[in-house]
Amino acid sequence: FKQAFGQEKINSQQILFALAQFERTLVSAGSRYDKYIRNEPGGNLTELELKGLQLVKENCAGCHSTDLFTDGDYHNNGLDDTFSEENEKLAWGRGRITQKETDKGKYRTPSLRNVALTAPYMHDGRFGNLEQVLDHYTSGVKMSASLDPLLQKQNQPGISLTTDQKLAITAFLHALTDQEFTQNPAFAKPAN
After folding, report:
1. CA quadruple 96, 133, 187, 21: dihedral positive or negative?
2. In whole angstroms, what is the distance from residue 154 CA to residue 137 CA?
3. Which of 123, 121, 141 is nearest to 131 (CA)?
4. What's the predicted TM-score (pTM) here?
């Protein structure tokens, strides 16, 4: 800290600044998908992964959009159907902050980059693998007053996906893993 800030005393403002600067270095853009998009060596996607990419564009891009595969917005993805019990306040999501009924159950859309490495999934870790996540979107979405309209096509909750389509999406999600980023020693846990 002395070298960076010119003084020995450390304060919370300096810690926040240092953390923010470090986070700006955390850029993941070396996955096979990234190389495929840039037409670079190592950017070969299998037929199954390409099918998964197309399915993500068709079924998931309403929330998982842009190069980051997130819209940065809040959505209720049908994990819970009621939010009235006191012990369910954690399930309120954004509604816990805004106190608006329309925000209950809404959480910020996470990026899908490196998603194959970030289990368990959802705000409460209820799904242990990507297959369970896709099963939720296919047959586990629960109706509620704040369920995202993107998950209510033809008045049916969820996204209609076959087993083969779920396998293709899972394959594509693995292609979003950036080994260059995840194995970069600069971002490794420091030795004791």
Report:
1. negative
2. 15
3. 121
4. 0.87
Asked if residues 55 and 49 have their Cβ atoms less than 8 Å apart, the reply is no
Which amino acid is present at 175?
A
The answer to whether the beta carbons of residues 130 and 173 sit under 8 Å apart is yes
Min mean pLDDT across 17-21, 31-35, 80-84, 123-127 is at 80-84
Q: How many CB atoms lie within 10 A of CB 138?
A: 16
Cβ atoms within 10 Å, residue 14: 14
Q: Which of 147, 152, 156 is nearest to 75 (CA)?
A: 147
Q: Which domains does the chain have, with CATH numbers?
A: 29-184 (1.10.760.10)
Query: pLDDT of 18-37, one tens digit each?
Result: 889 888 888 889 999 999 99
Cα torsion at 29, 57, 55, 114 (round to 10°)? 20
